[in-house]
Amino acid sequence: MSTRVDEILSWYPTADPRTIGNLRRMLVHGRTGGTGKLVVLPVDQGFEHGPGRSFAANPAGYDPRYHAQLAVDAGCSAHALPLGACELVAPRYAAELPLILKCNSSDSLYVGTDPEPAVTASVEDAVRLGCVAVGFTIYPGSSGRNRMYEQLRSLARDADAAGLVLVVWSYPRGSGISKDGQTAVDVVAYAAHLAAQLGAHVIKVKPPTEHIESDQARAALDKAGVPLGTLADRVRHVVQSAFDGHRVVIFSGGAAKETAAVLEENRQTALGGGFGTIMGRNSFQRPHDEAVQLLHDVMDIHVGTSPS
Amino acid sequence: MSTRVDEILSWYPTADPRTIGNLRRMLVHGRTGGTGKLVVLPVDQGFEHGPGRSFAANPAGYDPRYHAQLAVDAGCSAHALPLGACELVAPRYAAELPLILKCNSSDSLYVGTDPEPAVTASVEDAVRLGCVAVGFTIYPGSSGRNRMYEQLRSLARDADAAGLVLVVWSYPRGSGISKDGQTAVDVVAYAAHLAAQLGAHVIKVKPPTEHIESDQARAALDKAGVPLGTLADRVRHVVQSAFDGHRVVIFSGGAAKETAAVLEENRQTALGGGFGTIMGRNSFQRPHDEAVQLLHDVMDIHVGTSPS
Amino acid sequence: MSTRVDEILSWYPTADPRTIGNLRRMLVHGRTGGTGKLVVLPVDQGFEHGPGRSFAANPAGYDPRYHAQLAVDAGCSAHALPLGACELVAPRYAAELPLILKCNSSDSLYVGTDPEPAVTASVEDAVRLGCVAVGFTIYPGSSGRNRMYEQLRSLARDADAAGLVLVVWSYPRGSGISKDGQTAVDVVAYAAHLAAQLGAHVIKVKPPTEHIESDQARAALDKAGVPLGTLADRVRHVVQSAFDGHRVVIFSGGAAKETAAVLEENRQTALGGGFGTIMGRNSFQRPHDEAVQLLHDVMDIHVGTSPS
Amino acid sequence: MSTRVDEILSWYPTADPRTIGNLRRMLVHGRTGGTGKLVVLPVDQGFEHGPGRSFAANPAGYDPRYHAQLAVDAGCSAHALPLGACELVAPRYAAELPLILKCNSSDSLYVGTDPEPAVTASVEDAVRLGCVAVGFTIYPGSSGRNRMYEQLRSLARDADAAGLVLVVWSYPRGSGISKDGQTAVDVVAYAAHLAAQLGAHVIKVKPPTEHIESDQARAALDKAGVPLGTLADRVRHVVQSAFDGHRVVIFSGGAAKETAAVLEENRQTALGGGFGTIMGRNSFQRPHDEAVQLLHDVMDIHVGTSPS
Amino acid sequence: MSTRVDEILSWYPTADPRTIGNLRRMLVHGRTGGTGKLVVLPVDQGFEHGPGRSFAANPAGYDPRYHAQLAVDAGCSAHALPLGACELVAPRYAAELPLILKCNSSDSLYVGTDPEPAVTASVEDAVRLGCVAVGFTIYPGSSGRNRMYEQLRSLARDADAAGLVLVVWSYPRGSGISKDGQTAVDVVAYAAHLAAQLGAHVIKVKPPTEHIESDQARAALDKAGVPLGTLADRVRHVVQSAFDGHRVVIFSGGAAKETAAVLEENRQTALGGGFGTIMGRNSFQRPHDEAVQLLHDVMDIHVGTSPS
């Protein structure tokens, strides 16, 4: 179909042909289809923050189908969601857009010093619900990181056997690193590298800041004269750290913010060679039509049709 | 058979037909059979508190068959019990009443700051012993919650493959929440939601109090004007939080108390749309005939034939 | 063969016929064969204490075959040993005497506040090495007890599928109980009960003292007037706590001690209805011929042919 | 081919014939092939220390194929590497030299008080990538040691079923022992013994120092008059502790150091009966040709053709 | 390593990565390693013609290891042999050179009108014996051909799942064609094509003669003016018939003949673009050193270093 899509798919020579097919589904779907860019809508607020707090204000959101329809209306590449919601949504929406079953989550009735999510779904679940991918979050820097890496490898092996795409959220966080370190450019690059080494097909990280967490990393980067001044520069270093640019790396928008800030961040990400964005709160917490408009604007930036 | 039972069963469209059959067995069995209400007898005191402390006073209780016979005599919907007892009881009683194999338990030789029960039985055990369901307790709010969620998902997948009903005790408890928070209405609603998201067919929670643990939840509930003044109101909110009332949610009686208090609590539960009760210490710690009488009175309340 | 052996075997009606066959092998083997009594030789010092400390003094012990031969020479019912040693010993000795593969162990390079052994062998290993049983230690009272119970249940299921006997060392120890509580009569009885509930065929506990750890247990035992004055009395209560005497419960000798004390302890154990002993340091740390003599004396006590 | 190779292989009578074949592959490959000695190149710096810190200085190293080619150029016995790199390297190099898939690793974004690596690859991965062996690190002395032992046994069983060699890095480290204790001769001997008991075919330990960590071990070794004065003496004791010299024990070079020190250490190791070396930082952190020369010199020492 | 090897491997884009690795092993091994040429030593005369007839002349050949060692001594690319011999040879030689397990064979105690070999080994056997490939003979022209094609497809599926190379001997023979037709150029070309269509990675055929069996084939070849005058011409046509030269096609020497004839045949084969030879009787029925010399001469011809 698209030369760019074929080029991206050639980076996964040992992946199962069905996995390639499912990754192609995401890359050719929606408003950015065929451009090699991805814009994904994730929703797992009910499990993460509780039902009343998430849905009482806008009762339409109690029904998981509202979010799936929003992703369809905006022409997103895919929709990421947890097990319970997926069991309600999949019978209808698996045929409408690619679904990513989010396979681990954290609830907020207990909040420890280090994040350590629970595995709440499996590849077996994703297969029976018709999803094209499984999603999994790792928190490098957490005391519980190793358990997550092991769970991820287990999931990866199952996904490989079932031909599903593996999408990894790699979010450094926990007692091993500072608050600023969570988005430090060396740490984000390391996080992308770890996800690649652990077998991720699509990697999601946060936009990296100028902060450098590790003295040894700073010394090495300084000595080699790696440019890190702009967000675009830093995005470029992160993408290089994932097998020299041969993995799909997308960037999240983080906490809800002003529209202008969201758009500028995406412009820099696109300039640095990022492959798109995954945007939750910045989209579904706005009214439906406003959310669709913002998602469209972001898509235009990534495919290069935005007036900028 | 019964319009109400069929309606309830229609809420589980993706469940295995054998699971539906086993859930139907519980819903048509005993004195409340066909009404859509469940009254269950659970006994696991030997493992939880030790043999001498539990059985020395009434040596009849050393024999697990005493409790199974009590459940039969009272016309309970089902009997929940641990592995060792089940191996003795099942050959005779699996044909007499639905058995729920309790798959995790805690002993009291070590009591930690956060509850974290041991998995002591499996779906494989339940199948070989002829049980219709497996039971599992999760403690949201415990530092060990995630391990429980993962064990639950594993059990759920096995139960699905074997066609067994999944009964989840969802009891918020542990260092993540306050003592009052264990029965706070927002927390109990969250607990019911988590159990539903994790795939429970039948959910057991505690009667919710007026306390609200989370400020964000209070803000959202206040803003939306959700009525929470009476136990019946709160039961209604909890039932709604479990997929808008499309899961069977039953309420426990908690610590042993006066007969009048037990009956009043069940009246409120029934009024709020609860699906019944699971009552251990309040029944089997009384003399046999008194226990049968109390269970009958509670059943009458739930099926609406009580003078009230 | 033996009326007593057949009677004992009748207590396990749901066990796999191969399990029954293997339990029979232990009960008919060696010098106590056919009497319903067991005297077992366990050796895992290399793993537990290190090679130099265990074997430098008597280099013959570097070779695991020395201990297997000792068990043969003394006519023991069985020999318990860890994986590595078993891989060297089994090709020859599995045909000479029943082998119990010890499936968990602790090394002493790290000693934590609560015991939590590592699982170092599996039923699969026991099968390929020709063992008749697997052995597993649980430490009720340890913060890690639940992990052990779960590992034990997993082992039990595998053993059941493979037709192996399950021998459980149930040693209360850890931060949940006092030092004296480790051998308190109520605690040892509870430990035997837990092992029975978890599916053990043969249970090994320590000789119980007069100490009672739990106030609730003391109240219940006092009220019921259970006699606990002599070691024989206490052994009787412990045996009763394991399904009213319908499980094989044997008692260990503990730390190395004088010959007279060893013999007296075994006399009391036999008098109270214990099923024999498992004796490591008190035998293999003596010279070969002295060890054989002591084991013979103990066997004579248990089968009732000792002059006493 | 070689009498010595056949002799070594005879020490593993219960190993799968394919495992023997793969161990033979390592023993007949490369410049030391047929001598019974092994010189292995391990590289997992990207995962352990991060991409920028490891590869920014010499961008050739960003490509894992550089290291595989170095191992070929130097005639190493085998190359050890982690999953992600192996997926890139294996399609070409599995046919060129024996590959050891490193199945656990630690990243440095979180550094706890006790080492506890994550399992990042499996035997299934090793099989699909054409490796001859799996590698695994245990840290006796760590609070997490038991988890590692259990993961190792699980890996060992899978490796046995697939016919792969099991290479164990046994590095005492953690809060259970002192800093000096990590290389104490009694501790290194214990570490080698544990690896043997856990089923390792090839054991890698650090060169032991004269320090003795355990008083009981010192007493036993002193009493038996075991000579420990030279590194060669201590290597001899360590090799004896691994089933009296019937396991392949190789020694690592540790931190980067002067060439002369590396060579002297290897001379002592060879003199004491060590089976070779595994040398990472001391080789691949040098320029290519210098690294090849050093590896050749070390190989000459171990096969006895060095002028010394 | 070799551009030519990589080019050849690129012709198998859907093969399992392990299959590619094993094919690479054959292509980089031995005296022709890296040139894209293969010289294979096959020995299955004992099964096909009987032991005395095959080995009495040179009793060394009674021991299958003689042939494996001959293949090593001569630097062959691989050695093909039947099950029984492989079980003796594999433990040592699988580490020394690539082994091809021959999976079907015919004995000559019964000779039907049409050849129909027995399946005498499986992929499972090849895996447990450490082989890199399975070999299988089909006889197009036989009334039993379809059964062979089906057995071949079954073997191919197993080989694909296990990552083994599939080597197919395609020998037209049987009541469907004339005696001369067995080596007719159109028939050999057809046989090579059938093998390619059935999934062979490496195809072995006989040197084609000028005879043309099919009138329709002759008409088409004549019309197109395909040159078939020399053996080189005909080899070129056969290679072209196997996916236009994108399958490895090697040629057999057939019955024992004079050295000069063997060499000339190989010169023509090399000239016509053949990928090498598989030479049994013409090598192993000569004395050892003479056989090595002949194999070396043939290798030199194929890699183009021969004087002639």
TrEMBL record, chains A, B, C, D, E:
Q: Alphabetically list the UniProt keywords.
A: Lyase, Schiff base
In the Enzyme Commission scheme, what number(s) does this protein have?
A: 4.1.2.13
Question: Would the keyword Glycosyltransferase be found if you checked this record's keyword annotation?
Answer: no
Pfam families xrefs: DeoC (PF01791)
Q: Which GO terms describe its molecular function?
A: fructose-bisphosphate aldolase activity
Quote the InterPro entries the UniProt record gives.
Aldolase_TIM (IPR013785), DeoC/FbaB/LacD_aldolase (IPR002915), DeoC/FbaB_aldolase (IPR050456), FbaB-like (IPR041720)
Claim: ATP-binding is one of the keywords in the record: no
Q: Which residues form a coiled coil?
A: none
Which major enzyme category is it?
lyase
From which domain of life does this come? Bacteria
In terms of Gene3D superfamilies, this protein maps to:
Aldolase class I
Enumerate the active-site residues.
171 (proton donor), 204 (schiff-base intermediate with dihydroxyacetone-p)
Q: Which family does it belong to?
A: Belongs to the DeoC/FbaB aldolase family. FbaB subfamily.
Query: What is this protein's name?
Result: fructose-bisphosphate aldolase
